[in-house]
Amino acid sequence: MPKSEHFAPPLPEIVGNAPAMQDVYRLVRLAAPAPPSATVLLIGETGTGKEVIAKAVHKLSRRADGPFIRVNCGALHENLLESELFGHVKGAFTGAIENKPGRFEAAHGGTIFLDEINSTTPKLQVKLLRVLQEREFERVGESRTIRVDVRVIAATNTSLEQAVEEGEFREDLYYRLNVIPIALPPLRERRDDIPLLAQYFLKRYGDLHKCVVPELTPLVIDALKAHDWPGNVRELENTLERLTIFADGGPLTADLLRFGRARPVIRAPRGGAPADVPSLIHSLVRAGMHAPRPPHVKLHKFLVDGVERELIEEVLRECGDNQVKAADRLGINRNTLHKKREMYRDADPNGAEPGAGDAPPDSSAAVG
Known about the structure:
Radius of gyration: 23 Å
Oligomer: single chain
Strand content: 5-15%
Order of helices and strands: HEHEHEEHEHEEEHHEHHHHHHH
Number of helices: 14
Structural class: alpha/beta
Strand order of the largest sheet: 2-5-8-1-9
Largest sheet: 5 strands, parallel
Shape: globular
Distance between the termini: 19 Å
Helix content: 40-55%
């Protein structure tokens, strides 16, 4: 397929004609009919729509009638992820009260999509490499070998090459995954697609909320195109849903726009002294010592964990949720950063991750 040829989006729910997306469409059509051994690696920032492109590869393939199974590798601890992927037998570990098939078995005859493959541990990477090479594995706690016929599509929101250099990702697994790489551009590199995407989402959420689809005014279009969209298409989708509700049947106006999350205003100390960091820390500690808190929460956890979580959240936001960049800026190991995110997510009753805001999984329907 020549690069000069114009390619339509591979699925109706994929919107956009930017040159960067034309290359994605071309590669999707080349990858779809390839044999199962040709693993597809989707590379892109969080919110660029990697899952939708994975579904496009599946639906255009000869496996379209088979199952499409998605696994978020970054959402589960190593032991749970191993059981989720390969299954387990009764008694394999505490809580294993019955035999359970894994996601690879569920994907037999179809496609398995391994999202956030970059978050897997070295131990699990060895088992994934074997599945990719031999198409076989054992359930946790069982010696019987199971063979499967699956197409593997993996996705990463960080540089696997850098992870290999840092010893955090197996080089042989990287090359086995990187047979057909497809890079998804961030939204800031395809601003001309923003009006089309905005109109698509307005129609979707107008229908969903059973309200009049608001008019997209030129001022709003200019404001949308001027924003950098660190959350990419997912952030745009959330913004348009909010605008649909706020417009209440009227036209969209620039004053309805609100990007990002509300942040507390930090005021300078009394007397007009500059708000230097040591002074702010002193004020925060004094305020935190006398602030109401749950009786079982001690001061150290209340203050230090709170500050650390806010710091991680802010750095991840500024780094576009790139964990490698964020870890380097924080001065900690990427695995440490991943564990802290898990810890704070588990501690949150709403299950939110730092930097995630109100965002849903990476499954925005209109990515191109």
